[in-house]
Structures
1.
Amino acid sequence: MLGKTKKTIIFSVLIVIAVAAGVGYYFYNKGLKNIENATPDASISAEALYQAYITDSVNANKKFSEKIIAVTGVVTNISQNQQNKAIILLKTNQAGASVNCTLEGEAANAKEGDTLTVKGICNGLGAGDAELGILGDVYLIRGYLTK
């Protein structure tokens, strides 16, 4: 009888390990969400997004963080990062603060002063430096310009 119980326990453990390995394999190979074709969870202006974060960052994180959002604003700067991805800064109602959008797609013909919409994943409010008077930006990653 003891041998049968031992075999049942070993078999059960092996089943649990196999299921865990299968789930892990699935999530590992699932890939990233296709943001370019995804429907955004929210659409908001750059000013309103930044205001939401500086007013109540906890609530703003619940609403926007790690979600696909479409942010509309006026371009204040376009540059490239070290990975040659376009960085577009959208104007907010706070001097020196922006919605910082890292693009996966092309910046196309975007230029400073244009009003455009970027769809991407919101990463929340970055840390600024209060002693130096530098405000943090709200970050949007894996962005695409919408047509």
2.
Amino acid sequence: MVIKVYRRELIYANHLSFPEDIFYEDNCAGTIWMLTARHFELIEEPLYYYYQNPDSTVHVINRSKCENRKTAARLLAEGCKEHGFTETFHDEIEFRFTELFYSTTLFSYLSGIQGESHLQQLSYVGALAREMKATFPAFRETPYSRELMGKEEKELIDLQMKSNLLFYLKYKLMQTVRRIRK
């Protein structure tokens, strides 16, 4: 999983697996696997070459991949609950879910989606915000959200929580201005 190597015993002893048939499966599995581990080692030696494929998951945005990211986040929350991590690491899991399910999906979708009408986009990001609020109503109040989210990201998210339409219009205007400046 990109920058980590796991012992086989950890995976088998804890009945861990990758979610199947979705992209971003490592976003779900990696967090749960790390929470399960009790010992970590840092190996300074580079052990593999990571090739950046221009057609890879992270370079092509479409609705299906955004849905996969949301599924991976839901599986992350379920897996953490199943393994008993939710109580001990509630704020950390909530923030990871917020990043994966909501903020990364929201901004990658809006910046990369092609072929959908403004109404479709507005509907999609509105549903995303509603599910985020339903899953973790106080997600903006965790220490991690307050400390680790960028100022612009926080402002945009706060705006969307007040008005999906105003958020959408502001974000699209910002994108247009940035494109013109380039």
3.
Amino acid sequence: MNQRIFAAALGVSIIVIAGYFLFKGAPAVTQTPELSAATPWKITGVPAETREDKTNEVVRDAQSPAANVTLYQNATYGFSFKHPNDTKITELEDDSGDVIIADGGPQKSFQIFIMPFDEPMTVMTPERIRRDLPNAVIKNPQEAILGDPSINSGQVAYALIFESASDGIGQTREVWIVHNGFLYQITAPIVFDGELTRIMGTWKFE
């Protein structure tokens, strides 16, 4: 059951992206490209006593949008993030989960696909993804902490961040979070990488 659900999640994700023109203006991709143009995510180390090995903390505050932003809050799943004022948020329901589209225009949008995920994992791994999706492109994976464990450990979430690509939609940045029985798949065009870094720096769970 987990395998079927996991595979379905990515399929829905790609369909929604295409339907809402998240990648409008991007050239169609007929072959998986070599991923090399992504903006490096700015991360900083967290003291070893507060993290797992090889886990980093996404830089907040200095990298977060400070003006002309709106706070999005999701009461159903208990999370929030800040986004530019001109970004339109659309919430959709799907048989496999829920979809949130943040539409800031061509190449300036991202989506969040949320599905139940009951496996006992703290952070998603490339090996777990490839177990269900053996052909998935996963390049430059890294782990990060969202939230400050020194303030409230219950608000902390662990993310797997990597570069990917798909025929027809091009290169993407992926942020996959496992938190409180749900899997969050955040997908954006690779050219939106810098802004997505700042947005994710404002992400908080209640």
4.
Amino acid sequence: MAPHRSPTAELAKLLGTARQPIYVLDEDFTIVFLNRACLEWLGLDAQELLGQRCVYHSTASTEQLDAVVAGLCPPPQAMSGEAAMATVAKIADAKIADNRRPIERMARFVPLGLGENDTIGILAIVDTDDLPPDAAIPTTAEPEPIALHEHIRRFRHEAAARCRADRLIGQGAAMRLARRQVELAAACRSSVLLVGPSGSGRQRLAAAIHYGENAAEKNADAYSSASEFILLDCSLLTGDLLEAAGAALARAAGQGEASPFATLLFHRVDELPADVQTQLADFLTRRSLHCRLMATAVAPLVESARHGKFHPELAALFSTMVIDLPPLVNRREDLPLLSQLFLEEQNAAGTKQIGGFSPAALDLLDAFPWPENLDELAAVVAEAHRSAGGPRIEAADLPERIRLAAQAVAQPRKVDETIVLDEFLGHVERELIRRALSRAKGNKARAARLLGVTRPRLYRRMVQLGLE
């Protein structure tokens, strides 16, 4: 008599020998099973992957295992009992620093459980064929979270991998130009001026250029911990502080302590008082600091200097390369992508996993004016992420000020119309004369009698009102 085998063992055997890569996640998105085909496709051992928790985000990782696990994560709505189709990805090899694009395949995610609200795990069945490198991202009339997720992941591995400027995501002409300028800036040592409103990510982008430049160097030792990124907030910078900072930098350069890859960022340089601008211009032209200069401002410094609002020599010194960052209100077409980007950053930082935004929530975000730009959007998404109780962010999860702003746009306040008395009375008088002439069949003398005026007076008014 053949030995009895449990149904669970039989199922594990069937899945283990299947030709398609298959893996299973429990309700906490932890990997509990991978078949042989899946391990061969990923190029890793089961011991490395079992027990790893998948997180739904697109952040590029420098660790191969973390990157592989993130690429296997299903859309969070699958845990709510909703079957889904999405791409999964694996890193081509262990050389993550090469920023090679992941190899992608389509996968079908099947919820496991007794009902919609009783999901205990997810079964993932992966196609056997790799997607072509130029495979189109599926899109619909409404921006679907899965499509936005795939767009962000590809962007990060293609464009942002070269300059680490993920907030420059978008298809507008301004964003394409800014990405190209950032790549050029990261490949050279010229001074860079980042122009944009408050909250547009100028300081973050300056750091991306600095570290992108260092990462591009072949000698890893040259840009290690000695690669300083020094920030001076010019809204707080006085002449005495400038002298002290300059002396320290000059002393470090003279003693050979300064890194050849150091960057000195003058944040909000356009807020420097006029006397400090003159002092800074004199200091920078007299001394060789052996570091790269960057600055941020709300408007181009050369234009400000032309109107007498900034030191011309200092403006020229900082403006070798100028990168414009438009306000968020001028790139509303990028709002769904940016919102999904910030949402997945929240996913990566915590345990709660949210798949995306409902169309109603995106409509509310689109109606908001965003005076503080990207920083404000990131804060709103973080607040909504904390409030959300389902697999996606609904309109009710957004902060109250976002909902109130949308109501104000939908119901604009009526503007009181000004009545110009002379113009209004002229319309009335003109209409009365027309009616009198009509009743008098064009006879002016009779029309004058109907109106209770003399014929000469009627004629004068007709000429003045343009009726004669």
